[in-house]
Amino acid sequence: MKEQAVFVLADRALDHVVQQIGDSQWAMDMPATFARRDTSTVPTLRTIISYHAYDDAWVPDMLAGRTMDEAGKEKFKGDLLGDDPKAAFAHIVARACAAAEQLNDPERTVHCSFGDYPAREYFWQINGFRGLRAWEIAKVIGVDPTLPDDLVQGLWDELSPIADWMRSIGVFPPAIAVPDDAPLIQRLLGITGRDPR
C-alpha cells in the first residue's frame, strides 16, 4: 500500500475518534504517557488534539514542497480548534487527506523543521503517530479502539522494519512481548511499546 494511502487511513481513523469525544471530556487530564518528552506537564485531551490539528494543518504545505519560512512560520499559530473543535478538526483532516491523495511524486522533498526527507519517509514518520494515537485516545475516552484492518496492515508494513531504530532514537518505548501468532494489531502495538491488553 502506498504511504499516502496509509496516511489517509490513519488520519481518518484519528478523526473518527475525535468525533466521539464527549463535550465534558475535552478538559480531562491525559495519562502521563501523553506528556511530551521535554516536560513533565500532563496535557489535557484538548491540548493533545490541538497539537494534532497543528501537525495536520502543515501537511498540505509540506507535501507541496514549501519550507516553513515560505509558508509562514506563524501561519498556524493559535487555537485551531475554536468553539467547534470537532468540525475544525474534521476540516483540517480533510485538507491534509486531499493533499496526500493528490501527491504524485513520493520522492518529492519535504522540508521538516528537523531536516529534509522524501515524502515517502515523511509519511513513515507521521502515519504511525496518527494511527497509534487514534488507538490510544479511543482507549482513554472509552470508545471502541478498533483500527481498520488495512490501516493495521499498512502501519505494520511501514513500522515493523524500522521499529528497533525508532526505539533507539527514543520515539518508541521498549517493546512489549506478544506471541508470534497474536493478531496483527497486538503485534503492532507490542513492537511500538504499547500494551495490547
Spell out the key features of this protein.
197 residues, mainly alpha, Four Helix Bundle (Hemerythrin (Met), subunit A), two-stranded antiparallel ribbon, 9 helices, 53% helix
Q: How would you explain this protein's 3D organization?
A:
There is one protein chain. The chain is mainly alpha-helical. It has two domains: 3-146, Four Helix Bundle (Hemerythrin (Met), subunit A), CATH 1.20.120; 160-197, no CATH class. It has helices spanning 3-18, 45-57, 59-63, 68-71, 85-102, 119-141, 149-159, 163-168, 184-191, and strands at 109-112, 115-118. Strands 1-2 form a two-stranded antiparallel ribbon. α1 (3-18) packs across α7 and α7 (149-159) packs parallel to α9. The model has no long low-confidence stretch (mean pLDDT 92).
Short description:
The chain contains nine helices and two strands. With 197 residues, it is mainly alpha-helical.
Total domains: 2
Determine the N-to-C terminus distance: 28 Å
**Rounded average pLDDT:** 92
Name the CATH superfamily classification of the largest domain: dinb family like domain
Name of the CATH class of the largest domain = Mainly Alpha
Number of strands: 2
Structural class: mainly alpha
Task: Kindly estimate the percentage of residues that lie in beta strands according to DSSP.
Answer: under 5%
Computed Rg: 16 Å
Proportion in helices: 40-55%
Instruction: Describe the largest sheet.
Output: 2 strands, antiparallel
Tell the overall outline: globular
Q: Ranges with pLDDT <50 over ≥5 residues?
A: none
- In spatial order, strands of the major sheet run 1-2
Number of helices: 9
| N-to-C series of helices and strands | HHHHHEEHHHH
CATH fold field value of the largest domain: Four Helix Bundle (Hemerythrin (Met), subunit A)
CATH architecture of the largest domain: Up-down Bundle
